[in-house]
Amino acid sequence: MKNTSSWTSLLTMTLLLFTSFALSVCSSSVQTKKSGTTQNSPCIDSTKIDLNGPCIMIYAPVCGCNNVTYDNECLATRSGVLRWKEGKCK
User: Fold this and answer.
1) How far, in Å, CA of 16 to CA of 64, rounded?
2) Which ranges carry the Kazal-like domain (predicted)?
3) What confidence score (pLDDT) does residue 31 get?
4) Cα 29 to Cα 8, 58, 75, 82, distances in angstroms
5) Closest C-alpha to 16, from 58, 62, 40, 52
6) What is the pLDDT of residue 25?
7) How far apart are CA 70 and CA 26, in angstroms?
8) With contact defined as beta carbons under 8 Å apart, do 32 and 43 qualify?
9) What gap in Å lies between CA 85 and CA 77, rounded to an integer?
């Protein structure tokens, strides 16, 4: 039982570190071109971050607006990402 607790702690810490890194890399807004003007729009909503929420572990990569590749839409959503496109980031 102790071994399971260690793995859970390690996984939790890894997810927290990954999220911290992703948030530090991502600026608070993404510059998008729309009708010739630049518009600020948020990329990450920190109120939507839920690293303990359930996700089916199917590999269907998406590229978040923060230019981070997530294994699927659910994992991007759990990380607070508001927009993504199908496929890996380039």
Assistant:
1) 18
2) 37-90
3) 34
4) 33, 29, 20, 11
5) 52
6) 40
7) 14
8) no
9) 12
- 78 — phi, psi (to 5°)? -60, -25
Q: Give the whole-number percent of the chain exceeding pLDDT 90.
A: 52
How far are the Cα atoms of 11, 54, 70 from residue 5, in angstroms, in the given order? 10, 18, 26
Rounded to whole angstroms, the maximal C-alpha distance in the chain is 59
Map out the domains of the chain with their CATH numbers: 41-89 (3.30.60)
CB 70 within 8 Å of CB 62: yes
Do 76 and 84 meet the contact criterion of CB atoms below 8 Å apart?
Answer: yes
